[in-house]
Write a structure and sequence with these properties.
Layout: E1 2-6, H1 8-11, H2 22-38, E2 44-48, H3 51-61, H4 69-92, E3 97-99, E4 107-109, E5 112-115, H5 119-126, E6 130-134, E7 136-140, E8 144-148, H6 150-161, E9 165-170, E10 175-176, E11 188-189, E12 191-192, H7 197-201, H8 215-229, E13 234-239, H9 245-251, E14 259-261
Parallel strand pairs: 1-2, 1-9, 2-6, 3-6, 4-7, 9-13, 12-14
Antiparallel strand pairs: 4-5, 7-8, 10-11, 13-14
């Protein structure tokens, strides 16, 4: 069982509103198809970020302002539009994914995901389908509304579905000491553990482009917390832009490229 996240930075242009990178999405779908053909026993759950769809809508409409339910509706609709594009691209490439909308059942408490319907996901897996989730809006018992990021959803599902690995595929090769798209001196961090995270955290900044979920630092923080609670899981942060990278990561049990987060 492997969880794969397609980062919004890879599948959209995060600097241009509602702009999907459809060629990237299709080449990822082809890699997933080849990996599944090579190993029919491979079980996958795929999620994707909202990129320039949900993040732009959240900023534009003022998501999170108390009582601003129009922003909740607009942000959820934008996330769903991207999900439709990604789902259709995978189906076109003959990858049997089934979209499962998190906001239909997600419930948060103070921005922590506390409830999500898992039976549809289990049923999809039982029929050899790939459940497709995505970053989405969620009702929040204390704040009214929250964003349920893909990393939050993965962290919620990990104890239930017990993946061996989690792959986070974005626009860069892994976690760097600075934004490698802007700083040539940025260095790739090969391994992150709960023991060295405090030092590394001070070097990290937000992600490239518009991101209302906290950028790279928040993604890494969530994954470090996850491996602390589930030490058998390894997390890989890799590039979705390099041809064949995702396929190799899915097929190789000893895959070691990018940044590894482990207990």
């Amino acid at each position: 069982m492997i969880f794969l996240k397609l980062g919004g930075s890879a599948i959209t242009d995060k600097n241009r509103e509602a702009t999907a990178n459809e060629n990237v999405i299709r080449q990822i779908a082809r890699q997933v198809k080849r990996a599944r053909a090579a190993d029919p026993a491979l079980r996958l759950l795929i999620g994707h970020g909202s990129g320039s769809f949900g993040h732009f809508a959240a900023r534009k409409f003022g998501f999170g302002q108390r009582g601003n339910w129009r922003a909740y509706a607009e942000t959820g609709a934008a996330a769903a539009r991207l999900n439709r594009i990604v789902t259709d691209a995978f189906l076109t490439e003959d990858v049997a994914v089934v979209a499962i909308q998190p906001s239909a059942s997600a419930r948060c408490r103070d921005s922590v995901l506390i409830d999500l319907a898992t039976e549809p996901i289990r049923t999809a897996l039982a029929h050899d389908l790939i459940p497709f989730v995505h970053g989405d809006v969620a009702f929040d018992e204390t704040r009214g509304m929250s964003i349920a990021s893909t990393e939050m959803i993965f962290a919620y599902l990990a104890p239930i579905l017990a993946p061996s690995r989690i792959l986070l595929a974005g626009i860069v090769e892994g976690v760097y000491t600075a934004d490698p798209l802007q700083d040539r001196a940025a260095q790739l961090i090969r391994e992150i553990t709960p023991g060295n995270f405090a030092h590394i955290e001070s070097q990290l900044r937000g992600s490239h482009g518009v991101d209302v979920t906290g950028g790279m630092i928040d993604k890494v923080r969530k994954m470090v917390a996850l491996v602390q609670h589930a030490p058998t899981i390894r997390v890989h942060i890799i590039s979705a832009m390099r041809e064949g990278m995702i396929e190799r990561a899915l097929r190789q049990a000893d895959f070691s490229e990018g940044t590894i987060i482990r207990a």
